[in-house]
Write a structure and sequence with these properties.
This protein has 233 residues and is mostly helical. It has twelve helices and no strands. The chain has helices spanning 3-15, 25-39, 46-49, 59-73, 78-88, 95-103, 111-128, 131-150, 161-171, 175-194, 201-210, 219-232. Helix 11 (201-210) packs across helix 12. The longest helix is centred in the middle third of the chain and has 20 residues, at 131-150.
């Protein structure tokens, strides 16, 4: 996937027209209203749009919830996604760490709140069943878990490449962090990378290489394999 296509993929997540499935007429109207609201939202305002889809449990509604999480985090324009995917596409040995540093959630006032927000957004992305959203959500959750280990990145501050590198080393000896990262990766790997077109070639190639022979039902094993891969590559 070229950088341009990656940018278009990320922009599509936030601003594309939504195809609603399995909704009755009233639910479809509510989802459509929420979509229009989110299209006009900015950082800190997208969550209010979700009141329109309260109680609606469809893929379309969860797509909106996932998108709203990223918008409220500050991904209101393609520039931040472009920065992240440009970092991933470089030849630098630190490209993945740069990517994760940019994706880490840090808009809240404490690391705990940032972790909760990233986890909530990830869960919504998974329930959308959109492979691109699932992969992006899992990477945001992973990045935020590492960011929390690296230090107190709050109110919009972002971890550096060195911070993420240090956090990867710390996570290798932290069973809770390892299992959390492994769970996020395992949940999305089969859908986003192994079925049909890969959601992102660079990330899926890394996962393919890291998870050879690994039981993806074992979240700790998946987390250990993914972290080991990043640490050694």
């Amino acid at each position: 996937m070229t950088t341009f296509n990656k940018l278009m993929f990320a922009t599509h997540i936030l601003f594309s027209a939504l195809t609603v499935v399995s909704c009755g007429p009233n639910d479809a109207d509510k989802v459509g209203e929420a979509q229009l609201c989110i299209d006009k939202s900015t950082k800190g305002t997208a969550a209010a749009c979700l009141e329109k889809v309260q109680g609606i449990e469809t893929k379309g509604a969860y797509t909106l919830r996932c998108s709203a999480g990223f918008i409220d985090e500050g991904f209101t324009q393609p520039a931040r996604f472009k920065q992240a995917f440009d970092a991933l596409g470089t030849n630098s040995s630190s490209n993945t760490e740069s990517f994760l540093g940019i994706l880490a959630f840090s808009s809240k006032s404490t690391p705990t709140l940032n972790s909760s927000f990233a986890n909530e957004t990830y869960n919504h992305c998974v329930k959308s069943e959109a492979k691109g959203l699932m992969l992006l959500g899992s990477m945001a959750k992973t990045a935020t878990t590492l960011s929390t280990l690296a230090g107190s990145f709050v109110n919009g501050s972002q971890p550096t490449t060195t911070d993420i590198q240090t956090a990867i080393t710390s996570a290798m000896s932290d069973p809770t962090a390892k299992a959390s990262i492994g769970s996020a990766v395992a949940t999305t790997y089969a859908t986003s990378c192994q079925t049909g077109q890969k959601a992102d070639a660079a990330l899926c190639t890394q996962m393919d290489a890291a998870l050879v022979g690994v039981d993806i039902n074992d979240s700790t094993a998946v987390g250990n394999a993914m972290l080991s891969y990043w640490q050694s590559n």
